[in-house]
Design goal:
Elements: H1 7-21, H2 26-50, H3 53-58, H4 63-87, H5 97-104, H6 111-120, H7 124-152, H8 159-189, H9 191-215, H10 218-221, H11 224-251, H12 256-266, H13 271-281, H14 287-326
Length: 331
């Protein structure tokens, strides 16, 4: 797993740059918005169709691990996000604070959580279940937590946003799950080709969101200090969650393999789910400014976790080498 800028991250940056110079506007923006909604609906349909219910059922025996991961994703992160608003001077007034709170209530990633767990020598089957459960529950918990957190801040979640979530995200996901026994194997066999739908729909959401933000004057209202604070908060959030999940799971007596799974699954936030959800929940608002902290966090988590996964893998190889050296020689 490379931890420098990958092709998709470069594509995201290009989408932001194009939106900054050539934002889609007027009637073209309406048409592009309809196409984006269709692409997002297809994205969540594919998510539902790919998730294997058999894998979820088989992994339920690790309930303590799954509770820990879900608590990290949907309890620890939001609490740290709220605390950041009180601790960091001026953060509450920043245009990016809404985006920071939003990323704190998103589900974990699926692909990267499993990949890093596998590289580090963790419990891969438990990672599959935890990441899948996080995404399924996130369909319900993320909008609920957005409503709760923003109600505390004096805002709320509108009926239009709920309608968008139900029709644009949840309905396609449920339909995909219902058809999963029929088309699930096909979807998983062709995951690379279908991955183009994932990345393409996210790029469409990002371009549309930043086009609207640029037209509304995003870059005229954002300062370099705002960007620096947002970057610092993202980095501290990830560092704190990695430390808490690593040492907390060890203190609770989990095995080494389970500790790795908890750390990698409990510290991730999904851009694949977050960008479309932001487009549905915050329609009509500064979606570009809300998505930017998540995009940055996405890249930071890939870079940091790639390094950690390699270190865990190297430690495992060294341990196995030492054990083999200690073994008696057969004559």
């Amino acid at each position: 797993m490379r931890f420098f800028l990958d092709k998709f991250t470069i594509a995201l940056i290009v989408a932001i740059l194009i939106a900054s110079v050539l934002p889609v506007q007027g009637q073209y923006a309406d048409w592009f918005g309809i196409a984006t909604k269709i692409a997002v609906g297809l994205l969540f349909f594919l998510h539902g169709a790919r998730l294997s219910r058999e894998a979820v059922v088989a992994g339920l025996v690790h309930w303590r691990l799954h509770i820990f991961v879900l608590a990290s994703t949907f309890v620890l992160f939001p609490l740290l996000g709220l605390a950041a608003g009180w601790v960091v001077p001026g953060l509450k007034e920043s245009v990016f604070y809404t985006g920071i709170l939003f990323l704190c209530v998103l589900p974990s990633t699926v692909q990267s959580s499993i990949a890093f767990t596998s590289i580090a020598g963790g419990n891969v089957s438990a990672a599959v279940v935890s990441a899948s459960a996080s995404n399924i529950l996130g369909m319900f918990l993320t909008p609920a937590l957005v409503g709760l957190l923003f109600a505390v801040r004096g805002n709320g979640i509108s009926f239009h946003a709920l309608e968008s979530i139900l029709l644009q995200l949840l309905a396609p996901f449920v339909l995909g799950q219902l058809l999963q026994p029929l088309i699930g194997n096909f979807m998983r066999r062709h995951h690379k080709a279908l991955g183009l739908v994932d990345r393409g729909s996210i790029l469409m959401v990002v371009y549309l969101a930043f086009s609207e933000a640029v037209v509304a004057g995003l870059w005229h209202t954002v300062s370099w200090s705002d960007l620096a604070v947002m970057t610092g908060v993202d980095m501290v959030l990830l560092a704190l969650v990695l430390l808490i999940t690593a040492y907390g799971s060890k203190w609770l007596g989990f095995s080494r393999e389970d500790q790795i799974t908890i750390m990698f699954c409990g510290s991730k936030k999904s851009l694949a789910s977050g960008a479309p959800m932001a487009n549905a929940i915050f329609a009509g608002q500064n979606v570009g400014g809300i998505v930017l902290p998540l995009m940055l966090f996405h890249q930071i988590q890939l870079m940091v976790c790639a390094v950690l996964a390699r270190r865990y893998a190297e430690k495992k190889r060294q341990f196995e080498k030492n054990e083999a050296a200690k073994a008696p020689v057969k004559v």
